[in-house]
Amino acid sequence: MNDWKVICRVEDIPVLGARRVARPRGMDVAVFRNDQDQVFALLDRCPHKGGPLSQGIVFGTSVACPLHNWTIGLDDGCAKGPDEGCTTRFACKVQDGQVLLDPVELATLATDVEPPRAGPCAGGGALGDASHDVQAPHG
Ligand code: FES
């Protein structure tokens, strides 16, 4: 059993939005909150063309990718049919109002997956601090 790493408080994540968690290696992890205060964690990379899922709109237990509107399941990271493909899911739990992730998974899962090299997703990534917020777009 691994120790869990405290990431933030649930209320630090915008309702129906996400917060990105930077990692020493690999792309950010997006931690989502829905309107039931359920929290989920996925690699911040759409299985279609790498769109930033942290900037998508959360509804129910899914997120709509901001690039081409694929629907990705927050509980499994997989695209809803007819689309196909999955992004990496990270273990996540809430304890006493705090969001926790598994530090071993943060250090080892999908560290070789690269961000898109061109287009609207290029140039994203860590800002240097441990974590940073991203607001879901409006409208
Ligand atoms: S990159 Fe997410 S739907 Fe195309």
UniProtKB/TrEMBL annotation:
The keyword Metal-binding applies. PROSITE patterns: RIESKE. Residues 4-101 form the Rieske domain. It comes from the Bacteria. GO terms for biological process: nitrate assimilation. Keywords: 2Fe-2S, Iron, Iron-sulfur, Metal-binding, Nitrate assimilation, Oxidoreductase. CDD domains: Rieske_NirD_small_Bacillus (cd03530). Residues 117-139 are annotated as: Disordered. InterPro entries: Rieske-like_NirD (IPR012748), Rieske_2Fe-2S (IPR017941), Rieske_2Fe-2S_sf (IPR036922). SUPFAM superfamilies: ISP domain. One of its GO terms (molecular function) is metal ion binding. Pfam families: Rieske. This is Nitrite reductase small subunit NirD. The lineage of its organism: Bacteria, Pseudomonadati, Pseudomonadota, Betaproteobacteria, Burkholderiales.
